[in-house]
Amino acid sequence: MDIQLLLALVVGISTIVVLVLRTRLDAFAALLIAALVTGSIAGSAPTDTITSITTGFGTTLGSIGIVIGLGVAVGKILEVSGGADSLAKAFLRAFGKGREPWAMGSTGALVSIPVFCDSGYVIMNPLARSIARVKQGGYVTLALALGCGMTLTHHLVPPTPGPLGVAGILGADLGGLILVGLLFSVLLLPVVVAYAKWIGPKLESEINAEVRNAVYESATVGSGGHGGTGTGTVVDDPATSSGERPERKKLGAGVASLPLLVPLLLIVLNTAATAIDRSNQGVLGPEDDYTASGWAATLAFIGNPVVALLIGLVLAVYVLLPRWTPREKVSGWLADAAASAGLILLITGAGGALGQVLRDSGVGDELAEAIAGTGLPGILVPFLVATLVRLAQGSGTVAMITAAGVSAPLVTGLGLDPLAAALACCAGSMVFSYFNDSYFWVVTRFTGLDGVAALKGWSGITTAAWAGSIPLVLLAGWLL
Q1: How far is CA 472 from CA 118, 139, 430, 436, in A?
Q2: pLDDT digits (tens, 9 = 90+) for 363-402
């Protein structure tokens, strides 16, 4: 590989890591600076680099920005309405007594599709505590299964913002990513539960005194019933701490699932209908001219991610919330959702900008040729980039989006399917959550684990999920 282009790539990625870890700048600014540095070292003209950045940023957000905003809004309404709680309790009933770790892991996986891990864990943790209190044991197992169940779908299944951003950068089919991401999550859940059941009993004695008292001795803990964080404070439900939660109506699990399931089903239906229609017409290659039949065009419209998630948001607002909920409060919740989506949108766009610079400067083509000459499976490239960035700076979302940006120019040269590359980016970003990951602190403080015990429990279980994904990623690269 050309030394100058290799240096551009290495310095570009190093710039992201150093800026995020050592300066006051966030990932958005770091990705843009890295794009400028990469283009300059690669020898691109300054004006060409700027053009690549703006083109990549606009193209990426044009394809996925609306979807991220709508997905976060649906999650916010599920959170404040109590819909997420209803789904969790239904899973507990469905799995039955003695299978609580499976129920908690599955609950976490379902809830984390529309709701961010941090707030989702705060909402669901009281269920783990209630079960452990009744059983008088097993809290660490339940808490770890819940937390890592959330990690699986948070990293693998749209409309979680990270996978959405990856799909937009790589041009992966969203319906396909939902289906295969769900399949990956189902296959990895036994790994998560097995590790939680193995390590949980070993760490039960390591729970700090405050959380132990909150779980096993107190009937209720704090005003929100969520218990201590291990730092002497009480964490309330994010929706109640500001007095914003509406008076809840009784929500069944079926009704609560509508804003989540309807959009997912419509998107998957669009993917399936398009595949069937193309097959019927004999138009299989992406480069072939394809005009959708009438029925397929209709399903493509309602199954477009923008339309599907807009339907989900309307269902969430008008089905989950009580009729008497003031319009101002609903607008406030949606504004909060938009604010939380803002940084994700910027990071996603910046990741697309970096990918465009790598593509236009020739770094991508050179790297693809170099990797092809080593015999290393091409599918491992995005996987390993995501892994290294995650270890360096902590954020799974930043890791997968950075990996997608780096990998976007390589997809064609390495003969990779965009869907397989997207799965590799997402799976590689699950590795070894530790001190530089904010979710690490949420889980370990609620679980009452500190120091080495926290690393054995939470860092260990996320690494087990990452390791379990390696054969799945290799299989996806081969099959797709």
Answers
A1: 27, 30, 14, 27
A2: 877 776 676 566 778 899 899 888 888 886 678 888 899 8
CA 69 – CA 73 distance, rounded (Å): 6
- What's the whole-number mean pLDDT along residues 18-29? 84
- Give the sign of the dihedral formed by CA 449, CA 450, CA 452, CA 454: positive
Q: What is the dihedral of CA 476, 458, 401, 406, to 10 degrees?
A: -70
- Picking from 340, 318, 311, the residue whose alpha carbon sits closest to that of residue 119 is 340
Q: Which of 402, 357, 347 is nearest to 52 (CA)?
A: 357
Per residue in 223-275, pLDDT tens? 333 333 333 333 333 343 344 444 555 778 888 888 878 888 888 888 788 87
Of 74-83, 85-94, 117-126, 234-243, the least confident: 234-243
List CB contacts of 390: < 8 A, sequence separation 6 or more. 396, 399, 428, 429, 430, 431, 432
Q: Are residues 146 and 110 in contact, defined by beta-carbon separation less than 8 angstroms?
A: no
Q: What is the pLDDT of residue 295?
A: 87
Looking at every residue in the chain, the average pLDDT score rounds to: 83
d(CA 214, CA 312): 37
Residues 6+ apart with CB under 8 A from 24: none
What was the pLDDT predicted at 1?
Answer: 60
36 Cα distance to chain centroid: 27
